[in-house]
Amino acid sequence: MSTDSAPVRGEGAAESPVFGPVVCAALRIEARAVRRGLSRTPVVVVGYRARDAARLPGACAALVTVGFGGALDGRLRPGDVLVADEIRGPGGTAVPCAAPRLLAGELIRDGLSAQVGPLVTTDHVVRGAERAVLAAQGARVADMESAIVAARARGLPVAGVRVVVDGPGHPLWHPGIVGRGLAARRVLARVGPALERWSVLLVRAAEDAGGDAGGGAAG
User: Which residues form a coiled coil (predicted)?
Assistant: First the structure.
């Protein structure tokens, strides 16, 4: 098995706990890029449309879905980063994301262009008029994996980070996609440090909340 899925080796990998967040990427190219900026966080390749989501560990501190996405409105340009405040799936389901503005702030701190908004997962590449329909519903970016990963979180903190590679005025199937893809990969390679700082802040906030609750009970 490739090192891209090293955190979940073996048939029983889904039952193995991970003490910390886990980053999920659909494609190996995404996994290799995001891993460049990570010092301690495992990356799991879940496959196209998250067909290999069973590779995810049975327990972890948080699930973070990371990769490329398609913008649904003109406010996001190729190379921009969307931090999801919720991940929408089929049938109108939506999973809220943990501290999205905190994560976006950490990305901006590292010089990246980051915005916050809803991420929608579809079972196909979104094109043309469908972009406008989804944008009218408030979604900012589309992908094909995040809602499937988020559904497996079972109450764990979830985050979604997507680097824009196409959008209105920037079609996916166009010669310019090669340059945009390379640029997006460079951006993706820079998101790791912010993700790890965010996860530390998230854990500290949870510990502080637990301590406050415990102190109140004791008093």
Answer: none
